[in-house]
Amino acid sequence: MDVFGAIQERKSIRSYQDKPVAREVLEKILEAGRLAPSARNSEPWHFIAVTDAEKRKELSKGTW
Q1: Which residue pairs from 6-10 have beta carbons closer than 8 angstroms and sit at least 24 positions apart in sequence?
Q2: What pLDDT tens digit does each residue of the chain (64 aa) get?
């Protein structure tokens, strides 16, 4: 699929399955984010992947 086709076929997911993401898949997603271009190659992002359900629950209690 080319980029234009991917843009046309994109979907916004609003419901999620309650099952863990495989470690290999998570690492591939994070690597894709790390390789994504940034303005002037500044790479201003930081990725934190929380896989522990209890920690995610605690973090979700915070405010934005």
Answers
A1: none
A2: 789 998 899 888 888 888 899 999 999 999 999 999 989 889 888 999 999 999 988 998 887 6
